[in-house]
Hints:
Blueprint: E1 8-11, H1 16-27, E2 33-34, H2 46-56, E3 60-63, H3 71-76, H4 78-98, E4 103-107, H5 136-156, E5 160-165, E6 167-169, H6 182-196, E7 200-204, E8 210-211, E9 213-215, H7 216-229, E10 236-238, E11 244-245, H8 246-257, E12 262-266, E13 275-276, H9 281-286, H10 294-311
Parallel strand pairs: 1-2, 1-3, 3-4, 4-5, 5-10, 6-9, 7-12, 8-13
Antiparallel strand pairs: 8-11
Helix pairs in contact: 1-7, 2-4, 4-5, 6-8, 8-10
The structure holds guanosine-5'-diphosphate.
Amino acid sequence: xxxxxxxxxxxxxxxxxxxxxxxxxxxxxxxxxxxxxRDALDLRDQAAVDAWFDVERPRYVFLVAGTVGxxxxxxxxxxxxxxxxxxxxxxxxxAAHRTGVDKLLYLGSSCIYPRHADQPITEEAxxxxxxxxxxxxxxxxxxxxxxxxxxxxxxxxxxxISAMPTNLYGPGDNFDLEGGHVLPALMRRFHEAREAGAAxxxxxxxxxxxxxxxxxxxxxxxxxxxxDRYSEAGHVNVGTGVDLTIRELAETVRDLVHPxxxxxxxxxxxxxxxxxxLDVSRLTDLGWTATTSLAEGLADTYRWYLEAAERGVxxx
Length: 316
Ligand code: GDP
């Protein structure tokens, strides 16, 4: 178990994942959480990150900061996704090493795996084939991040571990229609269609691509589980092991938000990876499984969306 009284740095605490990890750690009695906003510290800047670590001296780090987005943002801004993430991950890993951090958890992503990986995807599929072109920049940066953790462990003996989450959703998500991921985008589109009395809602692609969705609070729980119990070189998949088609997802969101809505598929938009579902047996064998069903998670996210819209704090 990691020490609940020690200083813990959550890098990326305002994002979907970071805000959930902060809630999880607070609920678990962590008493010394350290966070810093993008405005106060540019995580791409090694000298600035070094200076911050020298003052704050965290003993544990959750490295969940990064430039993230959905299929459109990834495919139209590949340079930003590659550069920002390469830099952020390198500076924090290096500063953690230099200041003798006890343990660091790095968060990858299921998009690191080859486009034609066997499904469900096992951890061993990494670097066995070409990447999905719509998120290649992001994936390359994430692969470099995993390798950073592995090589710092091998060369310096640092206890740096990596978790690979599947597609995530939940409270605090980005509801931007162009830049965000499928689940919040569909939720917002159905919501706005209902408000406007519109019958049809656009879904990108053919609807046949298959994805797995993990509630972010389950991910936060898995991250703490791994921080407490896992100290090995290999990265660990985190997901539900269950997938569905984008059409099925859209129908489920419609039933919750705007039951009269009709789906219209815009096939000029890319499907991306044909299927992406993780083999989660390594994590299951360690003793952790996801507990939030998609139905519960969607209802919870929609409740949060309505409240956040009311308070004017949605990321749009
Ligand atoms: P990906 O797993 O990196 O492809 O992440 P996304 O969440 O961006 O997209 C997942 C799938 O949902 C892709 O097949 C998209 O074409 C499809 N999709 C359907 N409608 C939307 C939408 O409104 N926004 C996004 N981002 N994807 C959508």
